[in-house]
Amino acid sequence: MRSYCLYKGNYLDIADMYEVIDGKQINIPEKLEYYRQLSNTHSDLTCPCGCGEVVVLVAGSVRKQHFRLLKQFANSNCEYQEESELSVKSKIVLKCWLSKNLPEIKNEVRYRVAINELSDSKRRYEMTLYTQDYDFGIVYYRLSSNIKTEKVNLQKKYLETKILYIISEENEFNDDQYPEHLMKIQDKQGYCFYLKMGSNMLYEEAQARVCFYMRDYKGYWKSVVVCEGLLNEYEIDCQGLIFYNGKNIIDIVRQKREEYVKTQNYILEKKRLADEEKRKQEEEQRKWIQKQKEKQEAQKKKILREKAEADRKAAEEAALRKEEELKEFLSVYSKLATIYNLLLRLESVKGTFLSDQSNGNIKRYDRELNIKFVHINMDRHMIEVVQDNFNKAYFIILEKNFTRNKILGTGALYTILDFSGTKTLDIEQYFTTTYICTYKEKYKALECTQPTIGCQHLINNKCTYKQVCRFQGK
Description:
The structure is a single chain. The protein is an alpha+beta fold and 474 residues long. The protein has four domains: 4-257, no CATH class; 258-326; 335-441, SH3 type barrels (Roll), CATH 2.30.30; 443-474, no CATH class. It has helices at residues 29-40, 85-101, 149-158, 180-189, 249-332, 334-345, 427-434; strands spanning 4-7, 10-13, 18-21, 24-27, 55-58, 66-69, 110-114, 126-131, 136-141, 162-168, 192-196, 207-215, 221-230, 234-236, 242-244, 247-248, 346-356, 362-377, 382-387, 392-398, 413-418, 436-439, 446-447, 458-459, 462-463. The chain has a seven-stranded mixed beta sheet. Strands 17-18-19-20-21 form a five-stranded mixed beta barrel. Strands 14-15-16 form a three-stranded antiparallel beta sheet. Helix 5 (249-332) packs across helix 6.
């Protein structure tokens, strides 16, 4: 769509055909008739790009009025960039808003005013709308990507003009990221002014929202709404200041900023207190768990101590019972008791031992047993000798009609001392005569009662032989 055309070197804009009455966008009959007369000449109105092509007015509907080429596609050299319907309607609405607030200049508003027309700058960056009477202009951005730092800086540097930057509402950012383009506007005027328009909207339907961007307590960039409502509810005074419901927008923004900062600080403090409370609870929980663990550990140790004490007592009682049983056993079987007590005193014993073979034969072995432990097997009526190499040999004692059973495995060393058919005799003398014995105690040399010249163990008639004397048999 074409919203404007050239007439005798000046721009004629569709927006000049409207005024605002009671908040509604209304055609100005005189302007409409004037544009029609010029259009009907088919020569006075031309394309604004400078190609010279004639344009005519299309004004059948208040929502669709625009200029178009008289002969469509007749001039292939036309460089005019068609405007979107939304862009055209937005400029019309802004013109109506400006003329409604400053009615005395409603027919004197200029469009697309370049900076170099108002200052010494050579750049042609334009203002969308400009009124010389109030030195006030509006710069409208359909797309935020068109907001150039250079353009904004030049407009502020070279112009005394009060400028209101307005952006199409669809460009409002709220994705937590830094809104780079929009911040250029906010840095200049303190806020962002958004125009919310649909392609079929009239002035009375247009809405506006004022926001500013600020970080929240998390560090995200948020769009904070200052005020929002119909564009008609916003006012412009003769100084170019913007008001909403009678309040200066700058004052409202300042108040909202303070409230926002206070709210974020409150949230931050609340979060800090919550985090602190959470840490306290976690610390208390940790201490409680630690205390429970210590209690459990103490209880466990107590149970282990009690068990150990119970086991110790049980072991002592078992050992005592076993000792009593052994005493009773030894009191009954005195000959076995004599051999047992003798073996306890011996360091080694040497003699002939038997071993049952797998073929049923009995084999004899001459062995010296280096005694480490001595045990009594009361059930089997025998003495078990454990050697220092942990091999075992068995002394089976037969007495009081106690007969030997087949109780040892093949290859085990044993000897049988049968006292069942004999009267009481010197058992120890019998054993030490049958076996060569070495005592554990330090041997005390005794004077030999029957010294023999052939005995090599005699020193000054004192015997130094620890074992049974082979000459005396004791």
